[in-house]
Specification:
Layout lengths: L13 H29 L5 H29 L1 E9 L2 E8 L2 E8 H22 L1
Antiparallel strand pairs: 1-2, 2-3
Helix pairs in contact: 1-2, 1-3, 2-3
Pfam family, one: YhjD
């Protein structure tokens, strides 16, 4: 995932905070993609099988990236846990090489990032074919 060296102790690096954000975001994206896939199966449109294939390929990419992040977390001794929401901000506690901290992301920011990522991933799928 990254070529940066893993610090022995201390706070999460900028790259690690990005991984934490993605780790939080990817399960939301998978749920949304699964819901879209179910909707495509329930509605009748001649193009739905093709749309569903794009959704499946996007879900595969998300799943692979999430697995990669989990491997990096193991290497870097990072754990994310305890979600709570306060004033439209999702907070997650995390432990990074013994350092305890909290990561917060505004729901609207998360939605925007999810929308951007879906567009990026779908575009990547369509460009390969």
């Amino acid at each position: 995932m990254s070529t940066e060296t893993v610090p022995e102790t201390g706070r999460a690096t900028t790259n690690e905070l990005r991984m934490i954000r993605d780790y939080i975001m990817f399960p939301h994206m998978l749920t949304m993609a699964e819901n879209s896939q179910k909707h495509l199966r329930l509605t009748h449109n001649i193009l739905n099988p093709y749309f569903e294939q794009v959704v499946i390929l996007v879900m595969d990419r998300i799943t692979k990236e999430l697995a990669s992040i989990r491997r990096e977390f193991n290497k870097r001794k990072i754990k994310v846990f305890d979600e709570e929401m306060n004033d439209g901000i999702l907070y997650y506690k995390f432990s990074c090489r013994g350092y305890q901290d909290r990561f917060g992301i505004v729901r609207e920011t998360l939605r925007s990032e999810i929308s951007f990522r879906f567009a990026e991933y779908a575009s990547g799928v369509l460009q390969r074919n």
